[in-house]
Design a protein that fits this description.
With 208 residues, this protein is an alpha/beta fold. The chain contains six helices and seven strands; from the N terminus they run βααββαβαββαβα.
Length: 208
């Protein structure tokens, strides 16, 4: 067991249940393709990071998928809103004895291993590491101990999350990482490094 742990929150890749805002523009099938590509990107960028890694599924643990147990331990998210689920995931790993825990989602083509590795290094001299997202949320959160307040009373999915979280962290030594673009809408996808041509889009109706 290492002292550092990476938590990766994922949604089970099921048609009509992932990237629903993106699906309003490109349809459920292509939205599922994009999400599977996001999962693959996240796995590729994280599998060589020198830490213990945990994948937290939202609705059911899947054995035969890209997350090999050679590199990843598998767990199930608890019930509740995003804040409750993240809080409980952190608590599980802190109780296991990990000293530095970082959580990331699976929604960023801009996420790179070096960003996560930098966050772990920053936690040596900081209480918290956080990566702001362009939509007003955050894509990475690194903690050395539990902070229940930052997971409570948030409008998850709204543009107020990052600011509200920083308010809760007042008095803590916080490292701010680069601001990145997570993928919620077609506009987000266009601004990312993703090759949209693979989707073979002939026509779209923008309703974001």
């Amino acid at each position: 067991m290492k002292t550092d742990a990476l938590l990766i929150f994922t949604r089970n890749a099921e048609l009509g249940k992932v990237k629903t805002r993106l699906a309003k523009t490109i349809g459920n099938e292509k939205a599922l393709v994009v999400y599977k590509d996001l999962l693959l990107h996240t796995m590729t960028e994280t599998h060589s990071i020198d830490c213990d890694k945990f994948v937290f599924y939202d609705s059911g643990i899947v054995e035969d998928d890209i997350w090999s147990r050679e590199f990843y331990q598998k767990k199930l998210q608890v019930n509740g809103d995003l804040g409750q689920r993240m809080h409980d995931a952190f608590e599980i790993l802190f109780e296991m004895g990990y000293q530095n825990c970082i959580i990331v989602g699976s929604d960023l083509f801009d996420l790179k291993a070096i960003i996560i590795e930098t966050a772990f290094k920053k936690l040596i001299n900081h209480d918290v590491a956080i990566g702001p997202a362009e939509d007003g949320g955050y894509y990475l959160l690194g903690l050395k101990k539990g902070h229940p307040a930052i997971f409570q009373n948030k409008d998850w999915g709204k543009d107020s999350v990052f600011k509200a979280t920083m308010k809760d962290l007042k008095g803590q030594k916080v490292c701010l990482l680069d601001t990145l673009n997570d993928i919620d809408t077609f506009a987000d996808l266009e601004q990312s490094s993703y090759d949209i041509a693979v989707l073979n889009l002939t026509s779209i109706t923008k309703r974001d």
